[in-house]
Amino acid sequence: MSLHAFVRPSAFVPLLMSCAALALACGHLLFFGSAREADEGTAAHLFQLLVAGQLPVIAFFAVRWLRKSPSSGLVVLGAQVFALAVAFAPVWYFHL
After folding, report:
1. Residue extents of the structural domains in the chain
2. pTM for this structure?
3. What does the pLDDT look like over 17-62, one tens digit per residue?
4. Could you say which DSSP state residue 8 is in?
5. Span 8-23, mean pLDDT?
6. DSSP string, 53-72
7. Which residues are CB-contacts of 53 (< 8 A; sequence separation ≥ 6)?
8. In terms of DSSP H, where are the helices of the chain?
9. CA distance to 16, 25, 62, 74, 94, per residue, from 78 (Å)
10. 1 pLDDT exceeds 70?
11. C-alpha closest to that of 17 among 44, 41, 50
12. What are the distances in angstroms from CA 14 to CA 17, 26, 36, 58?
């Protein structure tokens, strides 16, 4: 199985965005804790933008690469979905 699809921006940009969202959530937890806030702060809005912004890129990748190279495309899509789930894990666990 060739993983040449990982070098495409539509493959690695969502992974980077998920990593940034995870770092943002963990940084917020580290500096401010998990206490509930009355209003969503900047960190919450940036997290939402990072997550929502990667969905069209993932859809573009799926449309483009699943026809061209299904096995590599599914591996990359699996990695993107896993990275997105990992980014959501602290938000879900700490009820942020």
Report:
1. 9-32+42-94
2. 0.89
3. 999 999 999 999 999 888 777 778 888 999 999 999 999 999 999 9
4. S
5. 94
6. HHHHHHHHHHHHHHHH-HHH
7. 17
8. 9-32, 42-68, 70-94
9. 15, 22, 11, 6, 25
10. no
11. 50
12. 5, 18, 28, 7
